[in-house]
């Protein structure tokens, strides 16, 4: 695989980088380089290159701007105590991007090439991977994405596609670190429907979530939870995180509906929880089960997880005309969180072959 490299002649200096690392926020600052690969039906994937990070010049008739044929991934590079840099289950992101590509009629980027491209950008911008001090979990967030770059307004799969990787040093996704997030139950809006794109990581799903997220904010909530669009009965997920319900009898239930994004954190938490002796049920989980379970004490903890948000306790649930107090915020979420981040940051043995060394 050939990747041509043009090194930036204006990399951020060390003093500015230290300032950024001190307060990176989420998705605000970007590294010195970006990676681009092009696809056409005749040439396949070609013209892979790393170049200085810069705005794109895009034709106003590019298909993505009109028909949203776009997919993305979210993953992180972690610096370990010995200075080495690792990613977490990148082949799982590659596989999910391939599934998203199939749903959006985009060309599949072979999984080994996906991993190699992501690694190449991280190596080029290695000094942008922050060290993590104590509870202050910092990492380099990686955003691979693919979009319809053909200049054409006909509605059909694009005949020119661009794959890119950009990277952004990040701290915690929620301001204030790990504390319970308040959830708004939207009864008006759905995120995904049967036969739709709910299981794909595509921009349209996030666009669909924004008005509901605005509604959540207007009601003083941090995040919105979506129900299934057919019966308005089954819990799906938050705008950018999967959900877990811990029961007093040692069961942990996580929604599976066919219309949620199947998180890589979600899959990892299932493995870790089963190893800790919990029984994990992946199944439909109704909003009544949530409300009744908290009221009766049968549900002892609720938490959400995702790459950006890691593991975050869920607090109060509010809806139009009612609310439900937090399930007690608990040890299970915090223990799972610790096990996961200890593996990611190289503080615990990775007994699962999850970590991938980049440099
Ligand atoms: N659900 C949605 C809608 C998401 O955007 C994300 C974040 O990527 C997740 C779930 C969690 O997925 P992952 O754990 O792979 O980051
Ligand atoms: C992630 O966790 O990587 C996400 O994509 C969630 C959000 C930032 C869209």
From TrEMBL:
<comment type="pathway">
    <text>Amino-acid biosynthesis; L-leucine biosynthesis; L-leucine from 3-methyl-2-oxobutanoate: step 4/4.</text>
</comment>
<comment type="pathway">
    <text>Amino-acid biosynthesis; L-valine biosynthesis; L-valine from pyruvate: step 4/4.</text>
</comment>
<dbReference type="GO" id="GO:0009082">
    <property type="term" value="P:branched-chain amino acid biosynthetic process"/>
</dbReference>
<keyword id="KW-0663">Pyridoxal phosphate</keyword>
<dbReference type="InterPro" id="IPR001544">
    <property type="entry name" value="Aminotrans_IV"/>
</dbReference>
<dbReference type="InterPro" id="IPR043132">
    <property type="entry name" value="BCAT-like_C"/>
</dbReference>
<dbReference type="InterPro" id="IPR005786">
    <property type="entry name" value="B_amino_transII"/>
</dbReference>
<dbReference type="InterPro" id="IPR018300">
    <property type="entry name" value="Aminotrans_IV_CS"/>
</dbReference>
<keyword id="KW-0808">Transferase</keyword>
<feature type="modified residue" description="N6-(pyridoxal phosphate)lysine">
    <location>
        <position position="201"/>
    </location>
</feature>
<dbReference type="Pfam" id="PF01063">
    <property type="entry name" value="Aminotran_4"/>
</dbReference>
<dbReference type="GO" id="GO:0008652">
    <property type="term" value="P:amino acid biosynthetic process"/>
</dbReference>
<dbReference type="InterPro" id="IPR033939">
    <property type="entry name" value="BCAT_family"/>
</dbReference>
<dbReference type="GO" id="GO:0004084">
    <property type="term" value="F:branched-chain-amino-acid transaminase activity"/>
</dbReference>
<keyword id="KW-0032">Aminotransferase</keyword>
<keyword id="KW-0100">Branched-chain amino acid biosynthesis</keyword>
<comment type="similarity">
    <text>Belongs to the class-IV pyridoxal-phosphate-dependent aminotransferase family.</text>
</comment>
<dbReference type="InterPro" id="IPR043131">
    <property type="entry name" value="BCAT-like_N"/>
</dbReference>
<dbReference type="InterPro" id="IPR036038">
    <property type="entry name" value="Aminotransferase-like"/>
</dbReference>
<keyword id="KW-0028">Amino-acid biosynthesis</keyword>
<protein>
    <recommendedName>
        <fullName>Branched-chain-amino-acid aminotransferase</fullName>
        <ecNumber>2.6.1.42</ecNumber>
    </recommendedName>
</protein>
């Amino acid at each position: 695989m050939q990747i041509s490299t043009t090194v930036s002649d204006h990399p951020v200096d060390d003093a500015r980088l230290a300032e950024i690392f001190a307060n990176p926020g989420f998705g605000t600052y970007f590294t010195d380089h970006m990676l681009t690969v092009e696809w056409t039906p005749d040439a396949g994937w070609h013209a892979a290159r790393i170049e200085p990070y810069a705005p794109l010049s895009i034709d106003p008739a590019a298909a993505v701007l009109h028909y949203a044929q776009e997919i993305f991934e979210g993953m992180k590079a972690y610096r370990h105590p010995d200075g080495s840099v690792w990613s977490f289950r990148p082949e799982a992101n590659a596989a999910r991007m391939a599934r998203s590509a199939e749903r959006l009629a985009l060309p599949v980027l072979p999984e080994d090439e996906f991993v190699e491209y992501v690694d190449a950008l991280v190596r080029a911008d290695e000094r942008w991977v922050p060290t993590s001090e104590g509870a202050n979990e910092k990492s380099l967030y990686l955003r691979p994405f693919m979009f319809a770059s053909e200049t054409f307004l006909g509605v059909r799969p694009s005949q020119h596609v661009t794959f890119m990787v950009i990277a952004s040093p990040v701290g915690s996704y929620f301001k204030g670190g790990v504390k319970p997030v308040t959830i708004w139950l939207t009864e008006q809006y759905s995120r995904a429907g049967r036969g739709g794109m709910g299981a794909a990581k595509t921009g349209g799903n996030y666009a669909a979530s924004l008005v509901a997220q605005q509604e959540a904010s207007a009601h003083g909530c941090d995040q919105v939870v979506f129900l299934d669009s057919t019966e308005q009965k089954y819990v799906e997920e938050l705008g950018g995180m999967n959900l877990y319900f811990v029961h007093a009898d040692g069961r942990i239930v996580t929604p599976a509906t066919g219309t949620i994004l199947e998180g890589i954190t979600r899959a990892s938490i299932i493995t870790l929880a089963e190893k800790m002796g919990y029984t994990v049920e992946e199944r439909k989980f109704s909003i009544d089960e949530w409300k009744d379970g908290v009221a009766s004490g049968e549900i002892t903890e609720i938490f959400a997880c995702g790459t950006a948000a890691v593991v975050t306790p869920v607090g109060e649930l509010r809806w139009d005309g009612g609310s439900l107090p937090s399930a007690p915020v608990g040890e299970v979420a915090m223990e799972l969180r610790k096990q996961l981040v200890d593996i990611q940051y190289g503080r615990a043995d990775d007994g699962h072959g999850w970590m991938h060394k980049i440099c």
